[in-house]
Amino acid sequence: MRCTTPYCRIRISRSKSYFLLPVMALLACGTAMAQLPTYKVGRPATEAEMRPWDAVVGSDGKELPPGSGSAKEGAALFAAQCSFCHGKDGQGGVIVPTSFGFTYSRLVGGVGTINSPTGIKTVGSYMPYATTIWDFINRAMPPFPLEKNLTPDNVYAAVAFILYKNGIIKETDVMDKNSLLEVQMPNRHGFYPDPPQEKPGKDGYWLPRWELAAKPAAK
Amino acid sequence: MNSKMSDRRGFLKGSAALAGLAVGSIPFANGKALASVTPALINGGNGAAPLPTNLGVTPDEPTIQDLLYGGRSKYETSVRSHSVNGPTGTRNLTPLQDTIGVITPSSFHFLVLRDQHLPNINPREHTLMIYGMVDRPTVFTMEEIKRLPSVSRVHWLECTGNSGMMHYRAYLQNLKAGRKDDMTLIQAMHGRTSCSEWTGVPLSLLLKEVGVQKGASWLVSEGNDLSRHAKSMPLAKAMDDVFVAYGQNGEALRREQGYPLRMLVPGSQGVNNVKYLKSIKLVDKPYYIQSEISGYTNPKPNGQASWYETQQGPKSLITFPSDPHKLPGPGLYEISGIAWCGRGKIARVEVSTDNGRTWKDANLQQPVMTKAWTRFRLGWNWDGTETVIMSRCTDESGAVQPTMMELARFWGDQVEPHIPASEIEHWWANSSIAQEFLNPQILPWRVKPDGSIHDALYNTLLPNPYFPV
C-alpha cells in the first residue's frame, strides 16, 4: 500500500477522527515518518526567493503589495499604455491580435447584459472579484512585445480607472490593499457552483456529468 | 510547408553546385565541416569504412540532417493550420485528418499561446518551487526532478473551446479571406486535441516531499512564459493522477509544449496543463484567476455561468473520411476516428453510415488506455449515394456521447430545469458571447455523391444573426 500521507491526513482531520490517527499511522506508514521527505532532493526555498515569485493574487488579496492609485492617475496611464489595444477609456473596438481568435479588448460596459445572446463580457460586467483584475494586469499587461513596466501604484491606478469607467467606484476613490477588497463587483454572484467543486462526487465524477446528457430528460 | 520544401531543394542544389566546384574536398554536403560528427558516428560507430563524404549531393542520398535527426518523406506535407482570422494567425491546430493510431507526432501537437511569444528556457536555469501551505517550501532543479521515480502515460489534451461554435465563425471568415488552402474544417473546428506519451513525476510524490499542511485544499500553478499563465486546481485532483511532465513521445517536451516542464492534468481541460511550470502554491481556495473567469466559463441564458468544470467528453470524431478528403468512387473504405473521455476508458464506439438510423460497433485499437485517445475503425462499403456518417462513444462508466439536442437538454432541462432545452440550443447557436461549452456533441459528416465530405452540423445552425461573417 502506497502512503499518500498529506491526503490521508487531510481526510482524517476533516472527519475529525482524531482517535483513529495512531491506528492509521500503524496501518499506513507512520504519520511521524511521513512528515519527512522520502527522497531528500531539492533545497529549501528562501524567503527572499519566494517573495518575488509569490505574485498570483487570490480573492483574499493576501499577496497584494503596498501602494495605491486613483482613477485620475489611472486615466493618464491608460491613455498612454493601454488604449492602444483596449480603445479609448477601455471601450474596445480595436482588433487585438491573439493566437486564439477572439479578444477581450473591451474592458468597460455591458453590466447586466450577460443574460442575453448579445451580452457583452467585460471586466465590469463579468468579473466577480476586483482582485482578478489587479492580478491579471500586474502579471500579464501590457503583453509581449511591450515591456511589463507597471509599478504596484500603476496597477492600483489602472484598476481604479477601469472600475470607475464601469461605474463601480467613484473617480476620487483610492484603491489600495484594503479598499480593493471592499469593491463589490456587479457579477459577484454570476457563477455556479459557488464555491467551485473541490472534490469529485461520491461516484468519482468531476463536473460536468455528461452521462446525464445522453439520457433524455423526463418532460 | 512550401517554404520548408523549397529551402530543402535550394539546399540540395546549392550543395550539388559546391560539390561540382571542388570534388572530394568538401567534408560534408552543406560545405561546413561538422566537427562533432565523425564518419564513425554516421556508421553507427561499428568501425566500417566511412561513408563517402559527398552526402546529400544527389537527390536520394541522405543529408547529414537526415541521418542525425531525420525527417519525413518529401511527399508528406501535412502541417498544423491557422486558428485565427487575420494575418497574424498562428499555425497551431492538429491536422486530425492525417493522424494515424493514437499518438500525435509532437510536430502535429496543437498549441495555444497566450501571446505571440514562445519561451526558450534553459533547463539548467529552470527550477520548480513548491510553497504556500507546506511544511518545507522547496526548490527543485530539473536535474533533481529527473532523479525522482517517474511515470510514462499516454494522455490526450484538449482545449476547452474545441469544436465550439465560435471557431466556425473564424473558419468562415478565413474562407472569405481566401485562406481556404490551409483551413480544413476538421482542423479548424476540432484540431485543438492531440494525444502523446508524457513522462514525468507524480505531483502526489512531490507534494509528499514538501508536506502539505492541514487546511490546504487547492493549488495554484504558474508558468514562466511572459503572460505568466496561472491556474487553480483542487488538491484532490492533484493527488489523484496529475504529474509534472518533462518528456513527450520519447524525447524532451517540445518548446511549444512547455519545455522544460509542464503540468499534465489527465482528462481535464487543456488550460489546466500549465506550461513552463515554475511554481506551485498550496492554498485553501481557488484563486479566481483571469483564465478561469473571462474564459473557460459558460454563461447560460439566465445570466449565470458555470465555472471550474474540468472533466471533458466522452467524445468521438471520424477523422477518415472527413472534410478535406475525397472518396474516389463507390467501394470499400475503412472509417477511422478517435474517441476520448475525461473519466476512465472508452468502452465502446458505434458508427452510423445512415444519418443515425442504425449503428454498428467499431473495432477499438488495443490497448485501450485511461484518458487516452482510442482509435476506432470500421469497414464500410460506400454505394456512391449521398449519406451522413457519424460516431458515438460510451465511456466505462456508461456515459454516452450526446447529440447537440441532448447536450442542450443537459444544460437546460437537466442542469437548469427552469431553462427549456430549446432556449439553450438557440443560445448555443446564436450567442455572440464566446461559449466554451466543452462541446462533446456527436459530429456528423455529409458524404456527397462526388465523394467529397462536408460538415453536417455547424452549417445547419446558420444563419446566425450575431455572427457577421
Provide a descriptive summary of the structure in words.
The complex is a heterodimer of chains A (219) and B (469). Chain A contains 10 helices and 4 strands, in the order αααβαβαααααβαβ. By secondary structure, chain A is mostly helical. In chain A, strands 2-3 form a two-stranded antiparallel sheet. The longest helix of chain A is centred in the C-terminal third of the chain and has 14 residues. Chain B is α+β, with helices and mostly antiparallel strands. Chain B has 3 domains: 42 residues, no CATH class; 207 residues, Oxidoreductase, molybdopterin-binding domain (Sulfite Oxidase, Chain A, domain 2); 109 residues, Immunoglobulin-like (Sandwich). Chain B has a 5-stranded mixed β-sheet with strand order 4-3-12-7-8. In chain B, strands 5, 6, 9, 10 and 11 form a 5-stranded antiparallel β-sheet that branches. In chain B, strand 7 and strand 8 form a beta hairpin. In chain B, helix 9 packs across helix 10. The relative contact order of chain B is 0.11. The N terminus of chain B is likely disordered. Strand 4 of chain A pairs parallel with strand 14 of chain B, so a sheet runs across the interface.
In short:
The complex is a heterodimer of chains A (219) and B (469). By secondary structure, chain A is mainly α.
Question: Which features would summarize this protein structure in a list?
Answer:
heterodimer; A: 219 residues; mainly alpha; Cytochrome Bc1 Complex, Chain D, domain 2; 2 domains; two-stranded antiparallel sheet; disordered N terminus; B: 469 residues; alpha+beta; Sulfite Oxidase, Chain A, domain 2; Immunoglobulin-like; 3 domains; five-stranded mixed sheet; five-stranded antiparallel sheet; 10 helices; 23 strands; 25% strand; globular
